[in-house]
Amino acid sequence: MLVGLYFTSLDSYLLFHALAEMFSIVVAFGIFVIGWNSRSYIKNNYLLFLAIAYLFIALLDLLHTLSYKGMGIFSYQYYANQLWIATRYMESLSLLAAFLFVRERRRFNPQAVFAAFSAVTLLVIAAIFWWHVFPVCFVEGQGLTPFKKNSEYVISAILLLDIAILLSVRKEFDPAVHRWLVWSLVFTIASELAFTFYISNYGFSNLVGHYFKVFSFYLIYKALVSTGLTKPHAVLFKALQDSEAKFRALVESSMDIIWEENRQGEYTYVSPHVRAILGYEPEEMVGRPVADFLAPEDAARARRVFAAPGDVCPCLVNQESEFVHRDGRRVVLERHGMTIVDERGEVRGYRGVDRDVTERRRQERELRKLILAVEGNPGAIVITDPLGLVEYGNPAFCAMMGTGPAEFRGRTLPSLLEGVEDGAAFRGFGEAITSGRAWRGELHRSPANGDSRWLRLSVAPVTGGDGALLNHVATLEDVTDRKDFERLKESVDQIMRHDLKSPLSGIIAIPGLLLADGNLTEAQRSLLAALEEASRRMLRMVNNSLDLFKMEQGTFAYEPERVDALRVLRAVLGESASLARASAVEVRLSAAGLPASLDALPVMASEDLLHSIFANLLTNAIEASPAGGAVFVEVGGDGCRVSIRNRGAVPREIRGQFFQKYKTHGKKRGTGLGAYSAKLQADAMGLDLHLDIDDERDETLITITCPPAAA
Questions:
Q1: Element at 649 (helix H, strand E)
Q2: pLDDT at 597 over 60
Q3: How many helices (H) and strands (E) does the chain have?
């Protein structure tokens, strides 16, 4: 086509000029047609501005073509040169002004722009054809005027500025469109420079300039006309394409399931995150009804809903539904959606978001359980803030206080418990609140208008993940009945001790009377002496039985004395001989660690309590040993340590609770009081009582360490 265009110039330069100009006019008019008729739905203000500008550029180029020398339409032969300069000024400045509208945020009024270009075009036409005030651009026989040449340079400079700005905003354009536009401006500059050299309107420089103009408008055609028709998203819908890409990225990166369904409840789109939530690929779900993925009860409801007649279907949205994961487990999704309507207002489908709330619902169920447990707990439960101000009290606390939540909320617990006699206990409670530690104690409350009651108060801190104190949780238990029972038990114990003393006194007197008779063998005397000693020890135990209760209460007054632990140990071995024979267990005493000359082991202790400790621990060892076994009682080398070792390791179930009250395992007549009593007495005297287990040898070792008596 370019070669053919050149041959037309050889036959008729006027024909060549007309064809070249008409090409640019058609392209410019095409730009206007596409841009103007797309203005109602495109947001590309840059294109729309240029479309309007190129309509008037086409109009001036048409006048330039019609007024060209030789056309015979106008009497004056050099309007064409003036129209050329006016048109190129309009083109270069319009390309520059269009950059004001590259970004969509700038307001744009197409009608106002159209009116402005109309006014400018009319002024140019009037200045050239009627007023004759437009500067002369060509003089016959002399060629181009300085105004014409300088204008071409100015126009080229403006076009260079256009290129620079165009390169700086390349991200606003499709890459191909941007490339065509830049090269179009390059050829426009080349065209302008070519038109600074010709002397004749039919000269070679003029021909080259028109070729460059053809190239320039061909590239404009590729950028805006051709691309606008074949790839409208690159020109007309660039903003829409960018918006689509942005929202697609948001949808595909969302941690929720974004979906669309048609009127029949079949998926038409499912976002990729469905893989993580339900285990399905989006392609597996598209085209299938949502009911296929719901739990049976929800699926039946969904089928009924979508099958219901009517123009608007209440889709399963804005509610929770149970879906079935690919692996079979239930997943609770919170659905939020809306209807999709067409331009006639008819429902075409539904669009929405599903959020996985399975874990949240599980936590809510656990929370409800805790609330029910706290609300229904018969014990009084109180929650305070870090400063100790009451925030919550359960119904049992309200009943205990005889008030409602509004009356105690924001007050301290001590201010609510009027009539408490023990101020020291409340001081301990206050210190626990201040330091953020646990505390437990008992309070005696005697309110002015109520019964005297004993309360057991426990408080524990609640901390966050970072260790910061959040709340205190306190429990109050009415232990009045237990206190009354303990007082009754103490009274009964005192009566029993009193009643036991009389028969024991008689028993103690009998051996003495019999020993006064000289007609006794040595063996009989030994037995009577042992009976008398055992009776006296029993009397002392009755007298000291109250001491165990005091030890439990922490009120026992211990007074150590010098005691021969070896003598006490041998006495316990003699008393345990009958139990050992009955159990077929051998008891061996080893004092190898003592010097040969030492026949005593003086320690600081209470003889009765030490005897009780040895007796309880030795009895436990004999009862725990298998028949035919042996119990080894050893005195340590330092003279103050006694160990009792037997076969049969303490069962794992009670190892951590061996010395606790009522803890026993496997004994037919075990009460769980022997080890507890021994530990209680050892602690009262400051003795070290230690348990060791050897599972490999199946042995239990208990060591008692006593403080030595001064020499």
A1: none
A2: no
A3: 25, 19
Q: Is the per-residue pLDDT at 101 higher than 90?
A: no
Least confident segment among 461-475, 498-512, 574-588, 618-632: 498-512
Is the separation of the CB atoms in 384 and 471 below 8 Å? yes
User: Would you state the structure tokens that stand for residue 375, as one six-digit string?
Assistant: 């609300």
Mean residue pLDDT across the chain: 80
Using CA atoms, how far residue 378 sits from 367, 372, 519, in Å, is 19, 12, 71
Please tell me the distance from the alpha carbon of residue 174 to that of residue 608, in angstroms, as a whole number.
102
Per-residue tokens: 353: 């978001």
Rounded-to-integer distance, Cα 167 and Cα 179, Å: 9
Q: Are 604 and 709 in contact (CB under 8 A)?
A: yes
Is the model's pLDDT at 681 over the cut of 90?
no
Give the Å distances, CA to CA, from 499 to 493, 502, 505, 542.
Answer: 10, 6, 11, 10
CB 106 within 8 A of CB 196: no
- Would you mind telling me the total number of residues written for the chain in this entry? 711
Q: Do residues 651 and 664 lie in contact, with contact meaning Cβ atoms separated by under 8 Å? A: no
Q: Phi/psi of residue 499, each to 5°?
A: -75, -25
Q: 691: how many CB neighbours lie within 10 A of its CB? A: 14
CA separation, residue 679 to residues 164, 664, 682, 686, 708 (Å): 94, 15, 5, 10, 19
Sign of torsion, CA 591 592 593 599? positive
439 touches 429 (CB < 8 A)? yes
Q: Are 263 and 349 within 8 A, CB to CB?
A: yes
Burial class (CB in 10 A: 0-12, 13-18, 19+), 223: buried
In this predicted structure, which of 41-45, 139-143, 157-161, 410-414 has the lowest mean pLDDT? 41-45
Question: How do residues 351-377 score in pLDDT, each as one tens digit?
Answer: 889 999 888 888 888 888 888 888 888
pTM above 0.70, yes or no: no
Q: Which own/partner pairs from 148-153 qualify as long-range (CB within 8 Å, at least 24 positions apart)? A: 148/81, 148/85, 148/196, 149/196, 151/85, 151/88, 151/89, 152/85, 152/88, 152/192, 152/193, 152/195, 152/196, 153/192, 153/196
Residues forming beta bridges with residue 642, ordered by sequence position: 635, 704
- Residues 337, 409: Cα–Cα separation, whole Å: 42
Among 160, 30, 49, 48, smallest CA distance to 94 is for 49
Least confident of 13-27, 79-93, 491-505, 529-543: 491-505
* Percent of the residues in the chain that have a pLDDT greater than 70, as a whole number: 83
Whole-number Å distance between alpha carbons of 86 and 256 = 59
User: pLDDT tens digits, residue range 540-584?
Assistant: 666 666 677 677 767 778 888 998 888 888 888 888 887 888 888
What is residue 456's three-state secondary structure? strand
Q: What is the pLDDT of residues 122-181, one digit of tens each?
A: 999 999 888 888 888 878 777 778 888 888 889 889 989 988 988 888 877 778 888 888
* Structure tokens that stand for 89 in this block: 């000024």
| H helix runs in 254-356, sequence order | 274-278, 282-285, 296-307
Nearest to 472 by CA among 413, 552, 546: 413
Residue indicated by tokens 């009924």: 304
Name the token pair of 640: 């103050």
User: Which residues fall within 8 angstroms of residue 553, CB to CB, at 6 or more apart?
Assistant: none
